[in-house]
Amino acid sequence: MMATIYRQDAWKQEEDTLLAETVINHIRAGNTQLSAFKEVGEKLSRTSSACGFRWNSKIRKIYEKEVSQAKQLIIRPRSTRVTPLPNNAKNDEVHTKESAINISFNEVLDFLQALYHDSVKLKQLQVEQNVKTQTIEDLNKQIQKLTLKNALLTEEIEKLEFDYKLLMEIMERARQMAMLSSK
User: Fold this and answer.
1) Which is deepest, 14, 71, 121, 169, by most CB within 10 Å?
2) Measured over all CA atoms, what is the biggest interatomic distance in the chain, rounded to whole angstroms?
3) Radius of gyration for the alpha carbons in the chain, expressed in angstroms and rounded
4) Distance between CA 87 and CA 83 in Å, rounded?
5) Taking the model in full, what pTM does it have?
């Protein structure tokens, strides 16, 4: 049995469009987004996780209106079960279970998936931040070492310049003495 090779290259516009259309169709049909990610993943030779991450990090924001419309088109059976009225409610008000809970399972699932992907992204950002913080600390240590080395070299240059000037003065005196003695 041959292992499936998954692509990890950059996403193309056509792939983003296919992902969006598939997810929206699954939402309309009352299916989960996970099943849409799996379907798209198989078509594009990508993991369902990669499709889910792409959807939640980039594409979902672009298609918010279409997703909202698709969720409104989902056919849900109406509950006829009556929930107890609150103490301050009028007796002629009828509350169904559906009106008392106005959030769908798909919305909860979408929220949890987005939360999961955000937490994964946060962990990645924290790791990157730790690496960059360590790099900054290493660079600061290197700057301190180079600053000290620069100060030592500057001091050495000043000593050499002083010695050079002394040598030049001695040589000038020697030249003048040689000229006086040759007269």
Assistant:
1) 71
2) 135
3) 37
4) 12
5) 0.41
